Amino acid sequence: MIDFGFDKLALIGAVALIVIGPEKLPRVARTVGHMVGKAQRYVADVKAEVNRSIELEELQKMKSQFETAARDVEQTVRTEVNDAASSFESNWSEVTAGLSAPSDSSSLAEPPLAYQPVRKNWRVKRSATPQWYKQRAGVRTHVQSGAARVRRFRPRAG
């Protein structure tokens, strides 16, 4: 990069003072300063964009490596599960091969009973909760009309 020392800056300032003149020099210096600042910000933005693109490429490489590793693990797990399932099926068929013939004792046994759901009496269940717990939890124990509820909670006059 260009190296500016004090002597070079003094020479540039003297030439600018002679060429531009003392009246316009402050305005020109301000304009040059703004332009140099814009150029520095532009260079910083370009550097940041290049760094972001490099990081993005690295992340994409890592993502692709991770996906291939995940596919490999999935494939090995799938093959192991298939092998285990096939060995289980073969062992199960060997074990159940002798059980497939009908025997005389099984024909004498009664068929299993069908499932019947238990009928719950909600009144019995409701009365099983203690009254003190219902009052504490705020459970209504009896139905009250709207007018009765208003009368109950209306402040007493007098």
Automatic annotation (TrEMBL):
Biased composition (Basic residues): 149-158
UniProt GO cellular component terms: TAT protein transport complex
One GO term (biological process): protein transport by the Tat complex
Membrane topology reported for the UniProt record: Single-pass membrane protein
Highest taxon of the lineage: Bacteria
Functional note: Part of the twin-arginine translocation (Tat) system that transports large folded proteins containing a characteristic twin-arginine motif in their signal peptide across membranes. Together with TatC, TatB is part of a receptor directly interacting with Tat signal peptides. TatB may form an oligomeric binding site that transiently accommodates folded Tat precursor proteins before their translocation.
Family statement drawn from the similarity comment of this UniProt entry: Belongs to the TatB family.
Subunit structure: The Tat system comprises two distinct complexes: a TatABC complex, containing multiple copies of TatA, TatB and TatC subunits, and a separate TatA complex, containing only TatA subunits. Substrates initially bind to the TatABC complex, which probably triggers association of the separate TatA complex to form the active translocon.
NCBIfam families per the UniProt record, alphabetical: tatB (TIGR01410)
Name this polypeptide is given: Sec-independent protein translocase protein TatB
Organism (species): Ideonella alba
